[in-house]
From TrEMBL:
PANTHER family: BETA-GALACTOSIDASE GANA. InterPro entries: Class_I_gatase-like, GH, Glyco_hydro_42. CDD domains: A4_beta-galactosidase_middle_domain. Residues 1-19 form the signal peptide. GO terms for molecular function: beta-galactosidase activity. Keywords: Signal. Coiled coil: none annotated. This is Glycoside hydrolase family 42. The keyword Signal applies. GO terms for biological process: carbohydrate metabolic process.
Amino acid sequence: MKRHLLGAALTPLVLLATACSEQDSPATNTQPVSKETAAPVAAVAISPLEQEARVKMDKLAGMMDEARSKGIDVAREETIMWFSEQFLKFANWDEANPKAIEMAFGYERYYADDKERLAAELPDFERTKVIEILDKGIGELGKELAGEIKRRPVNKVDWQNTKAADNMFISNGKPIFPYDYFSKTVGQPLTNKDIYNDHLGALYHGGEHLYEVDHDRAINSFLIKEDGTWDEDLLKNLTDIPDTNIGFLVYWIMGIPEWVEALEPEVRSGRSLFTGFDVDNPTARDLWSRIIRHTGELTKGKKVTELGFVLANEPHWYSEKGHWTYNFKEMNEISSYTLAKFQTWLDNKYQGDLATLNANWGTSFASFDKVEVEIPMDTALQGKPIWYDWMRYNMDRGTDWFTFMQNELHAVNPDADTHIKVMPRMFMYNSRSGGIDVEALAELTTMVGHDAKAFGSANIRPGKSNDWLKKYAYKWDGVGMFHDFMESVAPEKININSESHFLSSGQWRDLDTRTSYIRNVYWLATLQGMDANMGWFWARDPDGSPEDRLEGELDFFDPGLGGAYAGSNNMQPHVTNEVTQVMYDLNSFSEEIIALREQQRPLRLFYSETTAINTEDYMTKGFEFYEQFFFEGFPMGFVTQNIIEKQDNSKWDTVVVYNNPYVKDSEFAALQSFLNQGGTVIVDSEYSLSMNEYGQARTAKLVASKGKLIVMPEGSDIAAIKDVAMAEIADSMPAVAIAEDNGKPFKTTHWRSVKQADGSYLVNIFNLGHDTAKLDLSLIDGDIASMTDLMTSNPVQTSFELESEGVLLLQVVPK
């Protein structure tokens, strides 16, 4: 049997998508069948469903020949044919190896009790879905051959010549949105066309594919030996990457060699789940300085770095008691180096005034270098000065580490692009004990990086809220609100989702995921700012078997990885095909998408990390407010102190301060400066802005100055504040208006519009609700001459219906 040590041979994407990272108990320890014991696929007789599928493949092939003869593009059908062939092969493998598939289902607790039935049904399920995508392809191409629709030809990604521009990728002179899967099957060569092609994506993931059975796969701590020399075999995995297709590299900072620990016994104090050492440790920093500089020089100018260097995989340092990461030995203590840096930070923060620190903390330290702090910290201290000081420092500590990493890389490779796979939860969730300042990191790196997710169906973990299902077909907040924040912070930077969990995660999966959801979420994310995405995950070898990591003895620190395969897109041909189909369409309309998303954001919500640290429900309340504006036909935005101070304030009209009682004096001053320049500020109540970071009352009040200040009456609800805000930006609202009737007392239709050079309007509409929406589209200042569905080239009436999860791209021509 092959040796598969998943704890050592882990790619950078296993991460928190696994079960245990959601405080779940370990999955079953039953072992799957390895490739050595797998039954040959040839032993499986051709099923009636496969025969039916192959008849349809022959029919579609004939239609494609006819289309080619008429000059009709058939790239979409070529992808349908490719996935059909692949998944028929996969179905046969799954049928020939039922025990392996049972074990795959058994590793995911959500499916474990029903694993035998699911394994038995999977092959025909896959064949049935192949038939469905073939039927859909036959129908669509049939309409085009009959002249009923006209589709725009596919604009494929030029995987060899795509370049990173200032805020988008460019291919053959046009914007392009590269797509792929973050984890391609381990052990397959980068030149394997069954893995790297237009259908699955053809990015080279150089860092991810460094393979050494004894160490983590990626640019890691084990590149340097104890004698100070380089492990040349590991380096070859980096230097031997062919300089053809574009790609990205990953600094995988989870492990640390034992010889380093022998030199520095504290090196693991203050470690975290995906950062296996103390980032304040000077020996660790020296080690990584050498690694970053050497690998930066070796890869300088290579195509595999066109999408940048990922400085870390899902970094976090949660330091509050009771957090699930404690069981993974995250921040169980801090090192003497971290404490010393905290003491210095406090000395600077308090400007040497020890008496004020002691008064704030209720302590009697004799000097700053005698300050002590208990980590992890008791959550009962939230809102107290000691809580604020540590949590703010922990964020600054994380930012300092990534500043160090980027500086080391740029010292030898100044043009290298960088991003960090920041988890949206660091912004979207209420906790701020994780040591990640999302705004600071987006400002720091040359690209914006993250792994934004959505839930296509209910959370499969017990005790998790699914309240969003009461209104929406899928959980979109991590796409909408998170992207609007990142785009507000760094509007001129490329936005990369290096592990998109749109298809499945440890928290949700659906064996029969809706293709309408796939199209809607990928399109929405791209409109919101996503320039490239690598989905979770592709784990099939070309013969149909699960890839190496998911075979043999799954000896892995987080057993949830084994459960990631079950119910994923690796079992769903309709899902995997739809990902490519929607990316084809997005790339065919890339210029229109860029025009729609590069607009002013007239209304900005004020965001304060200070209040977020000090309160337990800041983001919950923040989303409830943001949500009310998401369906009003314009792109939302955010402002912070940094945005006000560093960006052109004329790019927005009005700032709304909602639920922000704690702000630093510098944040308060930034809001006043916006008013001084003539801006409008709406404050939800006198309570907002009333305290500094330590809960001390602020005597100063905002004054209108050259601007307009509106302080809402005490007790004003969200609806009242929204009405005032919408009135203030009335002159900046788009010329296109949509009236919606979805049978509910709330809106679910999101849209954007932009005027084009010829006087027409582009309008992109999404229905995020469960029900069909009746829509009436009009122009504020005139009548409509015609409307055209750009996806089909067919006319559309001004009153129309949009089904649940429907997406429309319209051209509206005024009279």
